[in-house]
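Priority: low. Protein: DNA polymerase III subunit epsilon. Input follows.
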Amino acid sequence: MLSTTENPRIRVIDLETGGNGANDVCEIGWQDVVPDADGRWQVGEDRGARFVNPGRPISPDTMAVHHILDAQVADAPLWKQVAPSVLRPVGGVTALAAHRAAFEQRYCRPSMTGGSPWICTWKCALRVWPDLPRFSNQMLRYQRMPVGLVHEIGLPAHRAMPDAYVTAHHLRDLLNEASLEQLLAWSLEPGLLPRVPSGPDRGRPWDRLTSDALIEFTRNKDIDVRFSANSELRRRGEGDSGQTIEVVQDRLL
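Result:
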């Protein structure tokens, strides 16, 4: 259920981790998106980041991405001590958001979020800007060049607050093109890929494929590929309209 606070806000979350364990977060960053007096969404003033002690050494693989050192997090609080105050701030949030939110949801469990709904800006970008060639957070940044994004605040990349800040600009623009309810609904479904992502048909729109080729893609191990192929079959009236959609969020929670 959406929050009914007088001052709605969506908090964009980005995590850096030290490994793949359930509590291996080593940094959390956030950036709020709020409506202005005219009801248009904007990037707010509330942003920040906190180091988190993952409880064990950070792996070299992840250290090479975010460059956070063990010494920097040694005296930081543990994840269970940090998470609630960021994920459930005073005044509450209408929703939480992240780019490829399934990753953040692995760590931001409902007991920490209070059951807030999530927006996945990656899934929503696929729907709103399907003609773009790529959809990573940073590629969207430079393909779209969002208005008002201060280049220096969004650096360094692969750190929690700068990445959340960049994602917030995508979220702002998505919210101003589609409704909050629509973004939440899209976020519950697998990603609707505009084109075949790999293989001999890589880069081809789904509507350019034969029905036999689409049926083969419905057996793919990737849930987003299966969903995209099935969506095109249903558009043609050849798919199973009663097919149960696999909901990533429910599987994670």
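The chain is about 40% helix and 15% strand. Residues 241-245, 247-253 have pLDDT under 50 and may be disordered.
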